[in-house]
Here is the input.
Amino acid sequence: MGRPALRRAGAALAALLVLAALAAVPLHATPFALRVVLNIFFGAALATAWSLLGGLAGYWSFGTSAFLGLGAFTAALMQEHGDFGGPVARFVVSVVAGGAAAGALAAVIGYPILRLRGAYFAIAMLGVSLVLGELSNSVDLFEGALGITLDPGTSIAPEVFFYYLFLALAALAFGVAVWVRYSRLGYGLIAIREDEDTARMLGVPTERYKLTGFVLSAVLIGLTGAVYAYSLGYITTSSVFRSDLSFNVVVYSLLGGMGTLIGPALGAAVMTFLTEVVLGGMLQAHMMLTGLVIIALVFLLPNGIVGLFRRRRAPPALAGAPAQRSEQAFAPAATAGDMGEPILKFVGLTRTFRGLRAIDDVDLAIAPGSITTIIGPNGAGKSTLFNMATGYLAPTEGEVWYEGRRIDGTPTHRLNRAGMARVFQIAKPFHGLSVYENVLVGALFGRDGARNPRKVAEEALAFAHLSPLAGEVASSLPVGHLRRLEFARALATRPRLILADEPCAGLNPVETAEMMAMLQAARRRGATVVLVEHDMETVMKISDKVFVIAAGKLIAEGPPADVVHRPEVIEAYLGKPLERLP
Here is the structure.
């Protein structure tokens, strides 16, 4: 059994021991202690479910009470009006219906509301919660103003019965969170959190993944809301559509460690203990003291409690790995271009911004297996061409063709999976992930889906001479290493076409030579490379063909030694003839 398998077995055993210990608490705890622990489980279940989208994907929501309240009222109405046999069956069906109703709401509102980001998404979800609360209070069907009585129909003592139910819900939420975190879905959500545009270019289906995380989170919160309604025994609109619950889950996650697995539960435990045990007897100053404690903890622990113990380590498979290139790794497959057709072609391409023609009727064809460079003055439209080729912008007029297929209008993530990769002008790593995890995202979502993404990531790191830095956090790397990381991550997607926007910008001569060598090595493996570059020495050394763009128009094309001597190129871009050629 290898070390990873031993670690997984050890973690599973530890989890079982913890569950067994928690299951024994009702045998020895006082009623007050039992109630405190029950509330911890309730908060942990909500915060962990919230973290599936808020922590992993970075989509903070202040609308937790929307799904909790909907789950609660669905369960109450199902119990009051449904006929499912005995009380146990009615209880189970009601709770499941509460989770299903919350999930259905998330599926319905998910697509439009997840198009919002940051504070706009958070406030929109708060609005959803307020709207549902008002509906439950005003529409007779929901009986929110009068209230509904609930009875689980069990002979077990209520405090013990709901203790085990909330323990089960917290365990369920944590289990789902662990499964999501170490799946493709989890890596995709984290990539969205770090940089959503870059995630799309690496092949992450961002809209589908956000919606999946949103629905999973809502179902778990709805289940918890249904059980919460039964634990109260009697609910009204004000008892379940509570804004304080929505804010509490954010506090729990921040305190424990945003985006971590155990952080939300740990934050719920600390805050519940402080508010109910330490400060519970100080009724006159309870809210003020609680606020002061939260402020102090946020200042003292900016990365949460878990942040005190987290430490990046290189993956065992990469520790001490030799920094050597693998010319056979992730080799591109044969393409339509190998039969003579351009791998990338722009036909009459035009893009206007409020009447300004950034790109004006450009025809351009890239030969397969070549290194082609696009040059021109700043603002000429070079990056706009790349944005249209990769689906970030739609052409105003004209067509984009890739491997014999028209692709304008194709979503960015599908272009990546078809074999197109991009290296951005400004390095855009996933700052919160390690070097290895950055490259692993590319391997997980790249062309055709890697059978062994970890091996692909290792080979890409070795190719870029980054294996010794695999466990380092990407945000700690200098510019030169960040450029290599960008290239390694793109290479891990197994591209047939690499669009590199000024890959040598900010590099010293030695680093520039290394980047050129990597681009040439990628071409030797069969990839086609298209550059935007300003360093004419690099352009002359590496390019098979050069296209010159000025004021949005294509003014010249051909071999670099020919193009740089043309009067229109000298006038528009170079300023004076190049004195010497390589």
User: Anything to note?
Assistant: Residues 21-305 form a domain with the ABC transporter involved in vitamin B12 uptake, BtuC fold (CATH 1.10.3470). DSSP finds 23 helices and twelve strands in the chain. The first strand starts at residue 148 and ends at 149. Residues 312-329, 333-339 have pLDDT under 50 and may be disordered.
